[in-house]
Amino acid sequence: MSLAIPNGLNNTVERPGERAPLVLGDTTYHDITEAVCQVAERPPGRAWMIGFLVAFALLNWLGICIAYLIYMGVGVWGNQAPVFWGWPIVNFVFWVGIGHAGTLISAILFLFRQEWRTSINRAAEAMTIFAVACAGTFPGIHVGRAWLAFWLAPYPSLNLWMWPQFRSPLLWDVFAVSTYGTVSLLFWYMGMVPDLATFRDRSKNKWRRMAYGLLALGWTGSSRHWMRYEKAYALLAAFAAPLVLSVHTIVSFDFAVSQVPGWHTTIFPPYFVAGAIFSGFAMVLTLMVPARSMLGLEKLITIRHLENMCKIILATGSIVGLAYGTEFFIAWYGQVPEEQFAFLNRALGPYWWAYLTMVSCNVLSPQLFWFKKCRTTPWIIVVICIFVNIGMWFERFVIVVTSLSRDYLPSAWSYFHPTWVDWSMLIGSFGLFFTLFLLFCKLMPVINMAETKSTLAKQLHMSHHE
Amino acid sequence: MSDDKNEKKVHGIVAEYTSVDSLLVACRRIRDAGYTKTDAFTPFAVHGIDEALGIKPTFLPWIALGGGVAGLVTALLMQIWMNGINYPYIISGKPYISLPAFMPVAFELTILFASFGAFFGMWALNGLPRFSNPIFTDPRFDRATDDRFFLYIDAKDKSFDQAGAEKLLGETGTEYINTVVDDDSSTTVPKFLLTTLIAVIAISFIPALVVARMRVTTSSKPRFHIFPDMDFSPARDAQQTTSLFADSRAMRPDVPGTVARGEMEENLDFLTGIQMELLSSVDADRAERLVRTYAQEGEPSEKASDQGAEPAKSVMDTTPWLEQNPIKITEAFVQQGQLQFNIYCSTCHGMDGRGNGLVNNRAQQIMASSWIPPASMHQQSLYAEQYPDGKLFSTISNGIRKMPGYAGQIKTRDRWAIVAYVRALQQSQNASLDLVPENQRAEIKAEQARVEKKLAEQAEAERKKEAE
After folding, report:
1. Which of A166, A171, A248, B402 is 20 to 30 Å apart from B246, CA to CA?
2. B104, closest residue in chain A (CA to CA)
3. CA–CA gap between residue A116 and residue A301 (Å, rounded)
4. pTM > 0.95: yes or no
5. Would an 8 Å CB–CB cutoff place B312 in contact with chain A?
6. Which CATH superfamily is domain A36-142+166-464 in?
7. Which UniProt keywords apply (chain B) (predicted)?
8. Could you tell me the CA-to-CA distances from A426 to A57, A87, A447 in Å, in that order?
9. Alpha-carbon distance B245 to nearest alpha carbon in chain A (angstroms)
10. Do A231 and B44 touch (CB under 8 A)?
């Protein structure tokens, strides 16, 4: 293989003493604007229309199911003694986890000056917000009397004459997830303002111009504004980095603070965070690979971007695998019979099939990313990432259901059976997610144009000096 | 075009560049020329431009720090006040103010408020949102968010002179220089948009107003139950019927053999009010039946009809009833009987035992045809000589005529206490002064005189009133 970039699109070859280009071809600033804006300015294509209709239908089905649930009560779910935390909480943890990759890409990789994040961070942040929206739905309706969910808020209640209980991890969760959603939204929106100004300035249609004009807040690109903007961006990144680690840590407290065998372990916080990043990157790739070819963004979201994300999946997947092993080791080493039983039961008990799915999808499948061919072939990436998504959903299922169905009281043991409402809500939550994501693709700048241009500027600057 | 411009206020001069490098060179030129009210407009953040234009660092981080501190303090005070002071939760004997448990929320709110500080502080310092800006009047300025770089000198700069500035910018390799003038396009919001907005805001207040109104007014109708919660239980009430059981009673009798705590009494005389040994010699069958009922099944099966006065008079008469209350009569015991009598018996028999209880009065009032008036406790036939304690006890337990048995509701001991109290009631209406201890007789006489006097006065007052 020659050192020159073959076919102009492969930037995965390392050349000593040189940074691999992240914007490919003879791209100019204007080309970047064109490439990103045409996504929103073109009339929607057939693939988008079909995708949107399917997603929107599923979203409506989710809405109907929620109405049915609220009308009938939580008995329509499979939640039954002793498994009172069934699929709703599984789905909640799954979706919150998905969200984490977005913040990781936009905040932590920003702080580490990983410039390859620039063309993927926008979509990843959007994914975060939509995933948090999906996640937030489930605890909201899981409280039983969903119309009283506002009792979680610390407000002076005239009905209760009391306050929420701040020693409960479930309340920590409320604060963690809502803070996370809010900060992610601010971060996402702030990052979009310069690009929304680009949209505004390109709009021919009066209404379009007015809508984007309002969203762009009168952004001019003034250097004085940019200076404060960049400072604020760095600050938000610095705040979001510990925040993202705290959120899944607190989600794991929901389990770890309890006394249930299989939940009461100190490994949960780091293990949950690694799993969250793992599943989030898999979801980013699942979305990005088809999107980049459908929207014609191959020059901006390059193979190198995909490869880097595959490497992170490989690393976090291995951490997750190590955590599974460590749990077993600690169960043996700790010599608590209930704990030992819980873990043996996880792997060999009635839910062995779920455990097997989890291990093969989460631990084995990402190992394929040791091979460069797998990291650079888009369809293989998508297949593996879908497996990872399935595996991570099963991980939460295994944690929630196996532990609860076999707790301290053998007379209460039972087997969990999901109902059609459980299934519908899981699938419907994907409807919500994809509806929002497809709308985002069509209406908002899917790639951070300003940052990509500044990456290009650096690239041009370096090539001048050669 | 130029004539037009001269009439408008000039805000400044703008020049266009095609590359970062030429922009930076131009920035340094005008900075060195002494201009300070300058700005550059770029499609992305250009590094090095702060120095080239002489832009000072921002104090935004301090705002963020302030936000963070405010968040931390808010969170800690909130949790300490809510869970430690105003409504102390008792959780596993932990201190009310348990800081470790308050850390997660404190951390989250610190981050949240710091982020608000950074986000809103940045927009405030930048003076945004600002939707009307003279710079937008420049016809080529739309490219500032695409691929062109603009340099701007404000007319408010103290060393500003239009010709000089234009000349200076002309030397910096730009191909486009323009003056920025007032924006004369309309800034009013379209009328229908405004109308819609106001209408939406107004309509959105209606539900809140309706709720607020309903909260402060009263209504004779029962309240709405959008979500009935658990207000209406499908479980049956005590006196309702049900199709679940053959006897249609929703209220289930005790399971045979049930013995309440503290009710495990071996003594059958105590349970039945009958001298059982005597009974077995008089009526062996019945004695055996009673033994089986009490000893094995626990529930008295001798129904009212079995020993009710009319149908089985002979049985009632031949039964060797206990003559004496088996429990020692003390003041406390009689008071206990009074309490139980007032709870269970007085509704029909009246507080004084004359049979004028509320239920009876009501039945008389509505002339209930099937009503049998409750017996007065003060008739001779119910005195101890004719109606032994054991028989009275048995009547309370098993019922008579319309009266149901109270064995299920009143504990055995309490039934005996009622018997004692009924005897006291009977005594109270017929006692002669001789029965009272000698040293209290005077007191009673005085009381009697006082009451008589009072009654006489009342009668007098009423007579006068009538006369008037």
Report:
1. B402
2. A172
3. 9
4. no
5. no
6. Formate dehydrogenase/DMSO reductase domain (1.20.1630.10)
7. Heme, Iron, Membrane, Metal-binding, Transmembrane, Transmembrane helix
8. 14, 8, 29
9. 27
10. no
